[in-house]
Automatic annotation (TrEMBL):
Residue numbers binding Zn(2+) 1: 83, 179, 207
Cofactor note (record): Binds 2 Zn(2+) ions per subunit. One is catalytic and the other provides a structural contribution.
Name under which the protein is recorded: Fructose-bisphosphate aldolase, class II
Residues that hold dihydroxyacetone phosphate according to the record: 180, 208-210, 229-232
Active site feature: 82 (proton donor)
Species: Jiangella alkaliphila
Pfam families: F_bP_aldolase
GO BP annotation list: carbohydrate metabolic process
GO MF annotation terms: aldehyde-lyase activity; zinc ion binding
Amino acid sequence: MAVVPTREILDRAFAERYGVAAINIVNDLSMEAVLAAAVQERAPVIVQTSVKTVKSIGLDLLFAMWRELTAGIDVPVALHLDHCPEREVITDCLRKGWNSVLFDASRLPVQENQRQTVDVVKEAHALGAHVEGEIESITGVEDGVGSDEEAERQTLETALTFIRTTGVDVFAPAIGNAHGRYKAAPKLDAQRVTDIVEAEPIPIALHGGTGMSDEQFADLIARGCAKVNISTALKVTFMQSNLAYLRDAEQRDSWDPPSLFTHVRGDVLGMAAGFMRQFGSAGKAW
Ligand code: 13P
């Protein structure tokens, strides 16, 4: 397999009730390491980019990296734009070739969010791409997007109307999850996932994956969370791996950048592979 539509990856995961790791990368090294983990584990994977990453690296260079790094890859992979409130960036990424986008209009009133999401779905589907939608902001700031205030939860009826009216391919409900590090073990409303999926069988995106327990992952994936988002864990692994290596390099007074890159790549690969095994997607490549 190779680069495939996001929906193809998620529909299989949803039907078989395993979770696909959707991992936010920050540069070429982390993108390559996550893809290498997918190849090693024979796992489908979704590589995610925040708007901040798109802007810091540049759309063209980021997509060129993706094209080069996935050329000839033999596991199913897709490129996804994470939380994007900026309509122009959505269009730019869709036209460039991103496989899916999360149009994050959760700060708008639901009616307006719904109206704009209908448009985004039309635009994406015309290009063979897919759309994740949300009606409540996920708590926490992720790469400059979001708020630490917990958003008001909408009713089940509102969520179902949003899904049916917009035709989104993936839905991301707020269930007590949050981006960043949890200060206390999160209390998650798993029943909300079941309620949505029973009324409208659509793959659910689980945000705020970093810090959830094995039991929470297993339970939520069994209920229909086919896409499991991980960002903070990669950032922490990436930074701590650099720090550990550089501290040691300082001790040894030895300064060889490629050795640093190899070390960090190994740690990021190991982290990503661990999530793939944990979510049950290892061995599921077709
Ligand atoms: P974490 O940063 O908590 O892993 O959440 C990731 C996420 O949901 C990205 O949208």
